[in-house]
Amino acid sequence: MRWWDIEPVLALEHELFPEDAWSPAMFWSELAHARGSRATRHYVVATEPSGAGGRIVGYAGLAAAGGLGDVQTIAAARDRWGTGLGSRLLTDLLQHATAFECEEVLLEVRVDNPRAQRLYERFGFEPIGFRRGYYQPGNVDALVMRLHMKNHQGTEIHG
């Protein structure tokens, strides 16, 4: 993800997460830490082929520090649900978690999002707790999940 991707990513963000969408400043801040030899972030976008319009259909981000990775965000356009895009985005993040030498990766997922929870479970993430009222303003709880990287088998989805 680069700065010129922020506007189309924000459009998708607001479509998918209307109550708790990230602000432009949040994406700018994350991207400020995604370049150079001291980078602690990795952000990626998925686009349609240029012949199909080249629109952004997904994005994901990872923060890493001190051997710990944290999936900051992951999203796929609704018309891409069930196509394996979420798996490809998560695979990319986990490959970069390995490059960042993360021993484990954490994430929060809405308790009312079983589709995402199943994706994370397929990759070996295990529930470890809850964060009450984490998603605002809807006051929705987050399920906290963890993956020990030594147990991760490098799951990769093609297609």
Describe the protein's architecture and organization:
Helices cover about 30% and strands about 35% of the residues. With about 160 residues, the protein is an alpha+beta fold. A six-stranded mixed sheet has the order 1-2-3-4-6-5, with helices on both faces. The longest helix has 15 residues, at about 85-100. The two termini are about 20 Å apart.
Which sheet architecture does the biggest sheet show?
6 strands, mixed
CA-CA gap between termini = 21 Å
> What's the count of strands?
6
Biggest sheet strand order reads 1-2-3-4-6-5
Strand-and-helix sequence, N→C? HHEEEHEHEE
Radius of gyration, in angstroms, nearest whole number: 15 Å
Structural class: alpha+beta
- Helix residue percentage: 25-40%
Question: Tally the helices: what do you get?
Answer: 4
Low-confidence stretches: 155-159
Mean pLDDT: 89
Principal-axis shape equals globular
Strand content: 25-35%
